[in-house]
Design goal:
By secondary structure, the protein is of the alpha/beta class. The chain has ten helices and 13 strands. The structure holds coenzyme A (COA). The site of coenzyme A has 22 residues, from helix 2, helix 6, helix 7 and strand 12.
């Protein structure tokens, strides 16, 4: 029994910060940011915006694309690390916004790999036969967790939400849908990327902090682990589905850094026209990056029936994983 993605949607905040805007805040340059990361701009929330607004809008767009009504959903899974409450989960708050009741709703915390972890949960739910129709959302506002005086991190992150509706409709009769998912973690590497949960501040709030405040990252070490982990886990997920990298029509990777994406494609012997990139427009939107990229690719006509997609992500934890989908 397979699960098909029958609708995608996404949403980003209205405020867009270009590299030129960041040159005015910290000692950096457009050329450095583009050459080291590929990022040109990022959208960030301000004090009057909430992660829930982004999640809600992305979900409504995905539902609209799917042709389903919210009331037909049987479960809501949200991948995020930036909810406003320790509890309730952002998924429960989204459930209330959607006017739904008496279905399971919960969050998954796997940072930038969260969407793939969510796919793993959705896959298991659907395979078990317990649920037929799920809403899976990836949403984060990591701009609220960076130190806006630390040039080594503040240029990297943006905010947003992406959503998919998964359904078993027509998926029992053919081999289209979610083929395999492999997720892995390495808690031993947690210090390469971390942030305390009480370090929150939007870009338009006043306040100066010590260097230890906000997201802490060992960039060069993380870069190497990300390239190795993403290429190895993508091979494992393809193996599990009986496929090889040459079968992939489109890889939709987590959009952290264009150099990481290129290095992973190279290790998998994939051409860059097999890879979807939009890191230049949004920066690293954490759990939202894969579903935002997928939504753009679908709406741009880059995904056709029976295409093989590899959705892969890596993030704090460390966590990583890949889902293989026959569209
Ligand atoms: C962060 C990253 C872009 C930095 O690129 P890098 O080439 O490794 O650069 P380094 O961190 O070694 O820094 C090189 C120099 O640039 C400087 N630098 C760092 N940020 C800068 C910025 N925004 N503007 C200008 N210079 C900057 C550093 O201070 C350092 O200067 P020094 O040599 O005088 O000490 C890169 O390591 C990376 O992308 N890592 C993975 C990050 C990631 O993907 N995180 C999320 C995973 S989900």
């Amino acid at each position: 029994m397979g699960a098909r993605i029958i609708g995608t949607g996404s949403s980003v905040p209205k405020t867009c910060l270009t590299n030129a805007d960041l040159e005015k805040r910290v000692d950096t340059s457009h050329d450095w940011i583009v050459s080291r990361t590929g990022i040109h701009q990022r959208h960030v929330v301000t004090q009057d915006e909430d992660i829930l607004d982004l999640m809600h809008e992305a979900s409504l767009r995905a539902l609209d694309a799917s042709g389903l009504r919210a009331e037909q959903l049987q479960a809501i899974v949200v991948a995020t690390v930036s909810g406003n409450y320790a509890f309730p989960s952002t998924a429960c708050l989204l459930q209330a916004r959607l006017g739904l009741d008496n279905i399971p709703a919960f969050d998954v915390n796997a940072a930038c790999a969260g969407f793939v972890y969510g796919m793993s949960v959705a896959h298991s739910y659907i395979k078990s036969g317990d649920y037929d129709r799920l809403l899976l959302v990836g949403a984060d506002t990591l701009s609220t967790m960076v130190n806006w005086e630390d040039r080594s991190t503040c240029v990297l992150f943006g905010d947003g939400a992406g959503a998919v509706v998964l359904d078993t409709q027509n998926a029992r009769s053919d081999d289209r849908g979610l083929l395999s998912t492999v997720v892995e973690s390495s808690g031993a590497l947690w210090q390469l990327l971390h942030v305390r949960s009480d370090h929150r501040q939007t870009v338009d709030q006043e306040g100066s902090h010590p260097k230890e405040w906000g997201i802490q990252m060992k960039g060069p070490e993380l870069f190497k682990v990300a390239v190795r982990a993403l290429s190895e886990v993508t091979r494992k997920a393809l193996d599990k589905a009986g496929l090889s990298p040459a079968d992939v029509s489109l890889m939709v990777p987590h959009q952290a850094n264009l150099r990481i994406i290129r290095a992973v494609a190279e290790r998998l012997h994939m051409a860059m026209d097999q890879v979807y990139c939009n890191v230049q427009d949004y920066g690293n939107t954490s759990a939202a990056s894969i579903p935002i990229a997928l939504d753009e690719a679908v709406r741009a006509g880059r995904v056709r029936p029976n295409d093989i997609l590899a959705l892969c992500g890596c993030g704090g934890g460390l966590t990583w994983g890949t889902s293989i989908v026959r569209w």
